[in-house]
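Aim 2, interim progress: modelling of the cobalt (II) ion-bound target.
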Amino acid sequence: MKQSYLRLLENNKAWATLKKYNDPDFFEQLAKGQTPEYLWIGCSDSRVPANEITGTKPGELFVHRNIANMVVHSDMNMLSVLSYAVEVLKVKHIIVCGHYGCGGVVAAMGNKQYGLIDNWLRHIKDVYRFHFPELDAIKDEDQRTRRFVELNIIEQVHDLGKTSIVQNAWKNNQPLHIHGWVYDVKDGIIKDLDVNFTSTKDLHEVYRLDSIQQEQPKKPSKVLAEI
Ligand code: CO
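Predicted structure of the complex, ligand included:
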């Protein structure tokens, strides 16, 4: 019996052939380098393919995906992607795109233990705790989950703004716009949550960071100067 994964390799050959047929320079141009305008932070969910749902081509989106599209400030993977995207690629927009029906968010609403992943889901539980008066007031469970998905996305937009990487870009007058979007797996439509961060003014004051003060080089001491 033919292994199912072989289909992926065959599809790939067909795709590459078609791309080259339509545009003989397609791969040569891409091989020269990338200048994406967008960093996409999305969920790992297989139903939310970043390029496909946004109609973007290879080279247009720099992508980071994890369970429930989280921005965890101690996550070296996320920080490395963010740093490279902002400081080297100089993306102009960062899009946090979550989705309704997110398994991570649903799991975080409950009390079941899943194993190691509970440590990741705990960050989402914190979002519930920040917003429990609003969430507990929603009696319909489906509606409450949908709102929790939205609030989780908004919280990740805040968390991006809190990073020194983003704040330093803003201080250097680098245009950088952070968006919060939600995708609906039921109809394929992305909704803009209208949470837009473009400067440190959009952050609570306690998170605003001053620039690093550069220490003036000290004069060599007399003894050292005489050596
Ligand atoms: Co998800």
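The beta strands are 38-43, 61-66, 93-99, 177-183, 190-197. The first strand starts at residue 38 and ends at 43.
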